[in-house]
Amino acid sequence: MPVLSKIDKFSNFPEWYHDILRDADIVDIRYPVKGMIVWRPYGLKALRLAQGILIRLLEETGHQEAYFPTFIPESVFSKEKDFLEGFGGETFVVEGTMSKKFNERLLVRPTSETVMYYMWNLWIKGRKDLPLKMYQMVNVFRYETKMTHPILRVREIMGFIEAHTAHATMQEAEEQIKEAISIYKQFFDSLLLPYFIVKTPPWDTFAGAEYNYDFVTAAPDGKGLELGSVINLGQRFAKAFDLRFLDSDGQYKFVYQTCYGVSERVLGAVIAVHGDERGLFFPPVVAPIQVVIVPIFREGEEDVVDYARKVLKVLKESGVRAHLDLDTEHSPGWKYYYWELKGVPTRVEIGRRETSSNTVTIVRRDNLEKKTVPLEKLVDTLKETWLQIETHLKSRALDYLKKLTIIPHRQPQTEKGLIVAAWDGTKACAERLEQVYGKNVLGEIVESPIELPPLSEFENLCEKQPDRYALLGVTY
Amino acid sequence: MPVLSKIDKFSNFPEWYHDILRDADIVDIRYPVKGMIVWRPYGLKALRLAQGILIRLLEETGHQEAYFPTFIPESVFSKEKDFLEGFGGETFVVEGTMSKKFNERLLVRPTSETVMYYMWNLWIKGRKDLPLKMYQMVNVFRYETKMTHPILRVREIMGFIEAHTAHATMQEAEEQIKEAISIYKQFFDSLLLPYFIVKTPPWDTFAGAEYNYDFVTAAPDGKGLELGSVINLGQRFAKAFDLRFLDSDGQYKFVYQTCYGVSERVLGAVIAVHGDERGLFFPPVVAPIQVVIVPIFREGEEDVVDYARKVLKVLKESGVRAHLDLDTEHSPGWKYYYWELKGVPTRVEIGRRETSSNTVTIVRRDNLEKKTVPLEKLVDTLKETWLQIETHLKSRALDYLKKLTIIPHRQPQTEKGLIVAAWDGTKACAERLEQVYGKNVLGEIVESPIELPPLSEFENLCEKQPDRYALLGVTY
After folding, report:
1. Which chain B residues have a beta carbon less than 8 Å from that of A106?
2. Taking CB atoms and an 8 Å limit, are B97 and A96 in contact across chains?
3. Domain B405-473, what fold?
4. What is the predicted ipTM?
5. pLDDT class for A5, splitting at 50, 70, 90?
6. Are residues A94 and A217 in contact, defined by beta-carbon separation less than 8 angstroms?
7. How far from the centroid of its chain's Cα atoms is residue A417's Cα?
8. pTM score
9. Which CATH entry fits the domain spanning A291-390: 3.40.50.1010, 3.40.50.800, 1.10.8.60, 2.40.50.100?
10. Helix (H, G, I), strand (E, B) or coil at B247
C-alpha cells in the first residue's frame, strides 16, 4: 500500500507534491525524457472533468473547436518578429525523418498563433466573418530552461486549451477580453481556486501582444502559479499575417485579435491548493470518484454486500461517479485511509446497522462528520454535502492564499509567499520593488481575492505617488 | 455560395471528395505542410461525435484513458527490432531546439507501443495488475511515402484512438481480440458502414505482431479503406520490454499483449460512403446539425419567425442538435440546397400554414419525403425518421459496397473495386492472385457483409485446393 509520509504541504511542498502525485496515481514521472510525464487514468480522469467545464463555458459563448497541425514551417513561424524572439529559443525542431532531411525545418508548436493566423488569412474576408472565435485542445511543446516540475512546468503541455478571436474593432476585442476573463473566473471558481488577476507590465507581456492579464494563485511553498492568461494581441499578428476584412465603408482593415489559454497546470493547482496532510482532495466537480462505498462485513454477510451493490446502483443511476470497494484483503480502516489519500470527497459506510435499517452513513472527507440517512435520501444528501464541502474548501483555500500573501507592513516578511506592494506603474519602481523584496513584479493587481489595505498605508518605494498595487512573486 | 459541381462520386471520386471537404467546411487542405490539414469546426464536430461513440464503448468495457508523451528516446524506440524496421523510416525526428542539439534523438510517435510498454515495465508486477486495458486519443506522425489524401492518408493523424492491453495468458489475449472486434463492429455499425474483416497474411502483419485483423470498406473509386486494425502482439514486445508478472505458481512470466486503433479516417469513410450527388450525408448520430429549421416568410411575418424560434427551443430542450437558419440574404430553396450539401439529415420547413396550425413539415435528406405533424409530435417523429434514414443509408452503403466488390467469375472484371478470390493461404498463391488481378492480397476474409458464392465456384489459381476467400484491393 502506498503510505503517504505525513508531510505538511506548507513546510515541505516539493516532497508532499511528489508523494501525492505518485501515491494517488495522478502521473508517473519516470518517463525517460526530462519534463515529459505520463498521465495515469485516475489523474487524467480528473483533468478531463476539469477540461469539460472549461469547454462547456467556451462553447456556450460561441467558441468553436478547430484543429491546426502540430508542425509549423519555419517561414510561417518567423512572420511575427517579437513572437519569434519570445518563443524561438525554446521551440523543438524537426529537421527530417530517420532517413531523410527536409528542405525546410518544421517547428513543433509552442503555441498556435502562427499556424492559426496563416489560415485565417484565407478565411477572413468580410465583416460577416467576424467575430471569429475558435479554440483547440492540443499538446504544445516548450523546451523550458526553468526547472521543470510535474504538471506545473513541463516540456510537453498535453492539455493546452487555447482560444483565439478576431474582431472588427479594438472595442470589440476589449469586450472579448472581458468575456474571456469572465469565462476563466467561472472556471477557476468552479474549481474553488482563489486568484489574483494581474495586468502584466509591458516588459513582461506575451510575445507579440499589446497587454495581457494573468490569473495567479499561490502554491503552498509560496511560489506563484499562473493559472491562465488572457491576451490582447492588438493588430501585430494581423499585420504580420495580413488579416484584413472588407469593412462596410469599402475599406480593407486589419482585424484586432485576442487569445487566451489554460493548461493542465490548473489541475496541478487544484492538487496543490486543496490537498492536505491526509492527501489529495478533489472538489466534487472534478473528482473521478465522488463517493466510495465501503461495506463493513464479515464472511457470510452476503446481505451487506448485496445492499452495498444496491446503493452503488442507486448512485450510478443518478449520475454520481461512485465506486464500490469490495476488496477483501484490507480492513475498512485501511480503505478509509486509502480513499482519503486519493481525494474522494465523500464516503458511504455500510454495515449491519445500515443494511437492516435501509440507511447509509455518509462521511465527509474534510471534517470526517458522519450522517446516517435513509437510502432514498442518499443522493439529495450527497448533493447538499458536496455544497458544504465546496464552501469549506473554498474558504480553506482562501485562508491558505491569505497566509501566503504578504502585506509587508502588516506582517513579518518571510521568503515564502506573494508580496503586495504599492506601485506607480513605472519600470524604475518595479525594479526597486524587485530589489527590495527579491521577487519579480508579476503585474498590477486588477482583482484581488483578499481585501487590501489602502495604498497610503504602504511604504512608498517609488518616486511618484503609487496609484496601484503590484503583485510580486517567484513563479513556477 | 459554394456550388458543388454535380459530380458523380463513382466516376470521379477524387474531385467529388475534394469539393465536398471544401464546400461542406470539413477540412482545409491549404496548410503549407504536405499531408497535414486543418480541421474546420463543422468537420471536427462530426469527428468528435464519432469519437465519442467509440470512447463510450471502450470505457464500458473497462478500458481506461491514459496519456503517454509524444517524444520517444531513440534508445526506447529501438527496443523491438521488427517494429523499428517497420516504422523507423517514416518517423519524424527531433534533434534539438532552434538553439540546442540534444544528446539523444527524440522520435515523434508514429504509434505508442514503445513509449507505453516502457512504462508498463514499471507497472506490471503481479497477476492482479492484469488484465491491463488502456487507451489514449492522440496525434501520431508518419512520413508516409504513399500519396497523401486529406483525412484518409495524412502525415499527422490527429485523432488516433489506440487501445493497448496486457494479459496473463494467450487465451485471455485472444478473448480480448474478440472483445475488440466486437467493439469495432458496434462502432462501424453505428456509423452505418459495411465492412469486410480480414486476417492479414503473415508477410503483411503489423510490425512486431503475431497477426492482425483489419476492417476494410471500399471508397467510391473502388480503393480499399482500412477502418481499423486489431492486433495480437503475442509476447514479442513483452520480451523486448521485459513485461513480466509474478504468477500464482511463483514464476515470473511474460504477458501477452494486444492493441487496436482507429483514426479520423473513419470520418473520411463516412463522408465517402454516405455522400451522394447532392453532397455530404451525415448519419444522424454524427451529424453536427441533425435538423435545420428553415422558416419561409416575407417581411413583416414576424409570427412565422417567432414560431420557428419556438420550434428550435423545443428541439434543443430535447437534446436534438438543431440550427435555425434566419439568414435573409438567401431564398428557402437556396438554403435547402446548402444544408443538404452539408449533410444535415433532416429539415423542418415552417411557413404560414405550419405557423397557423401549430405544425411542422419534416423533410428527409435521403428521399425528400415530406411529412407534416403537430408540433408536439415533432421530436418523436424525428426519431422515427432518423431510424428510417439509418436503415436506408445502411442498405444504400451495402449496395455501394456490393457494386464495388468484384466476384470475378460472376461479373466482368473492371479495374474498380475490391476482388474476392479463392485462396489456399499460401504466399505462392497470393502472389499469383496479385499478378492476375493486379491488386494486393489484403488478407483472408473472416467476415463478409456480402454473401459469397461457394469456393468451388471460383476459378482455382492455387496449387492446393482453396479453403478460404482472399480479399484483394489497392488501399488508401
Report:
1. 33, 92
2. no
3. Translation Initiation Factor IF3 (3.30.110)
4. 0.96
5. low
6. no
7. 19
8. 0.96
9. 3.40.50.800
10. coil
